[in-house]
Amino acid sequence: MQITVDLDLCESHGSCVFAAPGIFSFDDDDYLLYEPAPDDGLRGAAEKAAASCPVRAITVAAAP
Amino acid sequence: MSAAGHPREVVIVGASLAGLRAAATLRAEGFGGHLTLVGAEQYTPYDRPPLSKKFLTAADPAETRLPVPDDLRARWLLGRAAVRLDPYSRIVTLADGTRLPYDGLLIATGAAARSGAVPGEPGPGQGVFTLRDRDDAVALRAALAAGRRLLVVGAGFLGGEIAAAGRALGLDVTLVEAGAVPLERAVGAEAGAFVGMLHREAGIDLRTGTTVTAFRTGPDGALTGARLADGRTVAADVAVLALGAVPATGWLAGSGIEATGGVPCDNRLRALFPDGTAVPGVVAAGDAARVPQPLAGGDAPPPGHWSGAVEQGTAAARTLLLGEAAPVFEEVPSFWSDFHGVRLRSVGLPGLADTVKVHECDRDARRLEVSYHLGGRLVGALTIGRTSRLAAYRRVLAEPTP
Ligand SMILES: Cc1cc2nc3c(=O)[nH]c(=O)nc-3n(C[C@H](O)[C@H](O)[C@H](O)COP(=O)(O)OP(=O)(O)OC[C@H]3O[C@@H](n4cnc5c(N)ncnc54)[C@H](O)[C@@H]3O)c2cc1C
Ligand code: SF4
Q1: Confidence (pTM)
Q2: CATH number of the domain encompassing residue B367
Q3: Residue A49 pLDDT greater than 80, yes or no
Q4: Which segments cross the bilayer (chain A) (predicted)?
Q5: Which residues of A touch B338 (CB under 8 A)?
Q6: Which residue among B17, B36, B195 has the greatest number of ligand 1 atoms within 8 angstroms of its CB, and so is best to mutate?
Q7: Domains in chain A and their CATH numbers?
Q8: Which residues form the domain of B210?
Q9: Within this chain, do residues B51 and B105 fall inside the same structural domain, yes or no?
């Protein structure tokens, strides 16, 4: 699975960190960090994160 | 709903965030029947949070339309308000007389701005606005562009954002708040004082502990200012009443559902009659729904947050499809507000707290971390410039309540 986040859109809402802590986290300055190629087992959490992002910055796709 | 729990004819009243999420969930999870979305506004669903932020300040504001899935296969009845619900014959009636039978109904009519708090209140034509929908935002944007002095009544989140937008546009801004600090009931005195400090640093004239008792208009009827309860006057050519929102449930009068404070729901979002029995085939979601809040020990007014509308819309759709087999709805409320270039984020229900703990309060760096407790138990947290700290609180709040 492949995750992309449009960091120009991201407003550090943190919904993705709540929904999928195994993929998304913040550094100490509230910049979003994420695992771009997480395990397929996290697909449900990743989709929940994408759906909960208020600015629709997250795209979830199958691994290339 | 049929015995198997599969509705054939679903009507969603309120074509906005919660309604659209529910519609998308119904289709994504296999609903093959007819789907009708009814909306009082003429617009397809759009996002409201930008309307008090970027939409007011950007030179060329982007559309805030919400994406509608291609495969929604819905009938849209827009610009048409529902005026009546008969839960026994299962019919929704629209203002133009159209009757819509349903076997599954979602109530997602949101909330409306509270107004009428000041006697003889002038309207938008005279320069006094409220802000809830796109038309309000377009009108306010134009008034701010032409205005010089803005008066915002109510220093809650919405009022604070509008005041900040006014400053960003270069207007003189007065912000009037009845409480001792902004947001005291919502987030406590400590965080409220911090927000008040940010407003004053931005050059807003924040007047706390007072209210507007009368507006003043000139010979042409246009706003010139207001009189405050403390006897002082404020000059203004634009005013916004930001006094909170009330559930838009007036159309349910006569249905047997007592919905003045939001449609009462059970923990699968099924609408309830006053005797506690479920209204057959009817669910509610979003700002119109009074959803049980375990953190509050059960009943609490709708907090009115974006994420609640999203999660409840999804959950209500599952209840329509699965009935009793649908998962119980459990949500940790979360909320954000952006103003003066800072990001305020909260989780849980800070307003419940009897004890507030300040973990970080750095005025220069504009950072704040506060947690909220009731009877020794965590009920919420709030940060400014420290979103990274919230996830840990969220995890604790998501643990089942004892
Ligand atoms: C200006 C503004 C800024 C906000 N900022 C934030 C923020 O920063 N963070 C945050 O968490 N939340 C914010 N919110 C709150 C958030 O937008 C709401 O929680 C969310 O919109 C609720 O969605 P909803 O679908 O329940 O209701 P709404 O979005 O209110 O939609 C209800 C829809 O139902 C329609 N309707 C009403 N009555 C009828 C009827 N009788 N028949 C047919 N249709 C009807 C209405 O026209 C409306 O389109 C903000 C809200 C506003 C207004
Ligand atoms: S939910 Fe969206 S806006 Fe929020 S941190 Fe994640 S990507 Fe950024």
Answers
A1: 0.96
A2: 3.30.390.30
A3: yes
A4: none
A5: 11
A6: B17
A7: 2-61 (3.30.70.20)
A8: 115-243
A9: yes
